[in-house]
Structure formats: structure tokens, C-alpha cells
């Protein structure tokens, strides 16, 4: 019976929907996390009577036809790249982006990844790195025994070298923008990779043109809203239950039909 297959596609779609929602909820406290949303489309139709078909020699046309759908499919789980709320941490190496942009990061294999997670630290050689030890791009090295590490809104990194009282610029943080930032590929560790869908990155100085600016001593929270996720979860659960009910009803109809043949 067609209804069994159709309802099964609905159950599988809602199961995937719950998986996406559960990942959003799990990452509510993940720095810079961008929530995902499951998107669906209906499957192919069987046209038993095609709408617009001529029904007589006088030119009569069917005002409506008979179309039997075959269910639903998942077409994507795009990320919603809206701004998360910056929170003050008090840690001098924490940097949040306010507005558009990603921090370029050099991966161990030489590739460039991108992140909104600005929870940086200084390694044993003074280089500014991510929580995984990956270098920020372009590389910034803090001189030994220097003090007063500051980053302004335009990304200029200043320190006061040992033995002096005058701040000195030691680097410039750049950020990258994409034409289609939802087209980036997530690889975990709060990192994204460029894809043909995202387009090539446009590097620039924070605070110029359409680039966002920087906020030191702060981190960007995830853009997950608990109330919205819970309401979506309830809706997905009810949709799953209704599709399961269709499976039960179709099974009972088949049972009645097979009982008549005994």
C-alpha cells in the first residue's frame, strides 16, 4: 500500500529533524555556534488524471487532476548565520566579532579554515592560537615579557615591550567574508571550510566596508534559542506520531483486506 511508504518517508524526515534540533540544543553553550534548520520538499507525484487534460472534442478541460504524492525528502540542513550575543569574559585573549566575518585559521595540513570562535591563547613561543593550537592567519607573535596585550575594534594588536612604556603594534587581525556564508562546510572544533557554494573568501580589516568590528575580552554565544528549539522539537515529535498513526491505519486496512481473502 502506497500510504505505508509515504508515511515512512515522513517518519524518517522527522527523525532527521529531531537529530538537527538535538544538535542545536547540545551546542547551546558552544562559542560561536550557528544553529541548523532541516528543510524538506515533497517527492514525485503520480498523475492519475493530469490537470488541464482535454476531456471532449468540444475542448472541455479538467479543472483539477488526480495527483498521488509519494512522500517527503530532506533537501538541506543550512546554518542560520545570525549574530550571537557577545558576553564579557575578562580574558584578554578572547575576541568576539560584532557583525560579518570569520577569523582565518591555518590548519596543520596547510589548509585555511574559518571560525567565529575567538577564544584564543598564546602558546609557548608567544604565537596567538586557537584552543586546538592552530595559528591565527596572519600569524601574530607576542614578544616575551611584554605587557598590556590589547586589540582594538579595527583588529590592531598592541603590546608594551619589556623596558618601555610605549605601546607597540605587533600585528593586524584580518577577518574573512563570504558571499554565501551558509555554504561553508562545518568540520567540527568550531571550524568551517570554504566550498564552491560559499564562494571565495574576501579578506579585510575589521570595521571597514561591510566587515564587522572586534570586541576584546568577550566571546560570541551560540545563536540557539532554547524556547524556539523546544517548540520545534514538540512539533517534530507530533508530526512523527501522526505519520506513525498513518502506518498503523494502513496496516489495519491491509489486515482487513487479507482477512476478506481467507
CA radius of gyration is 27 Å
Helix content: 10-25%
- Average of the residue pLDDT scores: 94
Strand segment count: 20
Oligomer: single chain
- What would you call the structural class? alpha+beta
**How many H/I helices?**
2
Order of helices and strands: HEEEEEEEEEEEEEEEEEEEEH
Neighbour order of strands in the largest sheet:
8-7-11
Q: Characterize the main sheet.
A: 3 strands, antiparallel
Content of β-strand = 25-35%
The geometry reads as elongated
Which stretches of 5+ consecutive residues score pLDDT under 50? Answer: none
Alpha-carbon distance between the two ends: 19 Å
Structural domain tally: 2
Domain Flagellar basal-body/hook protein C-terminal: 215-259
Subcellular location: Bacterial flagellum basal body
InterPro entries: Flag_bb_rod_N, Flagellar_basal_body_rod_CS, Flagellar_FlgE/F/G, Flg_bb/hook_C_dom, FlgE/F/G-like, FlgG_G_neg, LlgE_F_G-like_D1
Protein name: Flagellar basal-body rod protein FlgG
Amino acid at each position: 500500500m502506497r500510504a505505508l511508504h509515504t508515511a515512512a518517508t515522513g517518519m524518517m524526515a522527522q527523525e532527521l529533524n529531531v537529530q538537527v534540533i538535538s544538535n542545536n540544543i547540545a551546542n547551546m553553550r558552544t562559542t560561536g555556534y550557528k544553529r541548523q534548520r532541516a528543510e524538506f520538499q515533497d517527492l514525485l507525484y503520480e498523475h492519475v488524471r493530469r490537470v488541464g487534460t482535454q476531456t471532449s472534442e468540444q475542448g472541455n478541460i479538467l479543472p483539477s487532476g488526480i495527483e498521488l504524492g509519494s512522500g517527503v525528502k530532506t533537501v538541506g540542513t543550512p546554518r542560520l548565520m545570525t549574530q550571537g550575543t557577545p558576553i564579557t569574559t575578562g580574558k584578554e585573549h578572547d575576541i568576539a566579532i560584532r557583525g560579518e566575518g570569520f577569523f582565518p585559521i591555518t590548519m596543520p595540513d596547510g589548509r585555511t579554515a574559518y571560525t567565529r570562535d575567538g577564544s584564543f591563547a598564546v602558546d609557548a613561543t608567544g604565537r596567538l592560537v586557537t584552543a586546538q593550537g592552530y595559528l591565527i592567519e596572519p600569524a601574530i607573535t607576542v614578544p616575551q615579557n611584554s605587557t598590556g596585550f590589547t586589540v582594538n575594534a579595527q583588529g590592531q594588536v598592541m603590546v608594551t615591550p619589556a623596558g618601555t612604556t610605549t605601546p607597540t603594534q605587533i600585528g593586524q587581525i584580518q577577518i574573512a567574508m563570504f558571499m554565501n556564508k551558509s555554504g561553508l562546510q562545518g568540520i567540527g572544533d568550531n571550524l568551517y571550510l570554504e566550498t564552491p557554494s560559499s564562494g571565495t573568501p574576501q579578506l579585510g580589516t575589521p570595521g571597514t566596508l561591510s566587515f564587522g568590528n572586534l570586541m576584546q575580552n568577550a566571546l560570541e554565544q551560540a545563536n540557539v534559542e532554547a524556547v524556539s528549539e523546544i517548540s520545534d522539537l514538540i512539533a517534530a515529535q507530533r508530526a512523527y506520531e501522526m505519520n506513525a498513526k498513518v502506518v498503523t491505519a494502513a496496516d489495519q486496512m491491509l489486515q482487513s483486506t487479507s482477512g476478506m481473502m481467507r
